[in-house]
Amino acid sequence: MRSRVSSIGLIVRPNPASGYCYPDHIDRASLDALPREPGVYLFVGHDGEPVYIGKSVCLRSRVLSHLRTPEEAAMLRDTARIDFVRTAGDIGALLLESRLIKQMQPPYNALLRMVRDTYALGLDAGAAAPAVCSSGTRRPGRQLFGLFGSRASAEEALRALARRHGLCPALLGLEAMVCKRGCFSRQLGRCNGACIGAETAEQHAARLRAALAGMQEAVWPFAGAVGIVERGAGMRQVHVVDRWAYLGSLEGRRRRLARSGPPLVDIDTYKILAAPLLGGSFELVQCTVQDGLVTFVG
Questions:
Q1: Start and end of every GIY-YIG domain (predicted)?
Q2: Is 257 exposed, middle or buried (0-12, 13-18, 19+ CB in 10 A)?
């Protein structure tokens, strides 16, 4: 039913409840099985594929609230049953929800469906300037500095670094040289003059590395992978993360991750973990990961 204009000029909008029926067609056993603990729930369609994925600290109450929402009638009509995955707490639920949405692409999930890459400033051995690259890029001799949600924000961070430390934008590939007068920033007094020989290339490179060093911690403050220990609801899980890539969760005696392959750094994972991880809020265990096998250190 569409909105219409009444005889006195008022916009009359349809009432979602007028065409809403409680979803009795959804498998009752799957609803009865829902626990009151944290986890991820999946509204599964008639073809066996998820149509919507969500998370909650109380699976049962959250799913039942969907069933009472007339605005979600279309999604409920497309749903045949509810599946769920228990987690020890909210962090595990957030990480798993983000991963499953990106993997399965449910049609009713407007957010989190896109795998959004993160970027860094990568400085190769012997290079005069860093290059903007994917933060997941691994290359021998390359150091990564900073972590950014877009290529543009990484480039702007490099420009800000140059302004703050008097680095030469021309040597960094940000500006063109202007004859013998040096770069435009030199003419404005913002460049220390590496472009005209006022300082050597070696001196400029050393100052560049010192300036970039302040960004290093944001890339990854650990020597390798770490396990984030989360306890709750009668469970203990270890969420394995390496360079802001969520590799999977372990529980009980299991030591092999269900998922293997190259780690994928995703900006949503970074947003979930950055503040509490860098702030020291998590219980951590050091670990190494090879071919999906996790070995705890110490």
A1: 36-110
A2: middle
The structural domains of the chain, with segments of one domain joined by +, span 25-104, 119-219, 226-296
Residue type, 200: T
Q: E strands, the chain, where?
A: 4-5, 11-12, 39-45, 50-56, 79-86, 119-123, 131-134, 143-148, 226-232, 235-242, 245-251, 283-290, 293-296
pLDDT tens-digit map of 95-106: 999 999 988 999
According to CATH, the superfamily of the domain at 25-104 is GIY-YIG endonuclease (3.40.1440.10)
Using a cut of 0.70, tell me whether the model's pTM lies above it: yes
> Contact 81/134 with Cβ under 8 angstroms?
no
How far apart are alpha carbons 228 and 89 in whole angstroms? Answer: 12
In terms of Cα–Cα distance, which of 278, 225, 218, 219 is closest to 247? 225
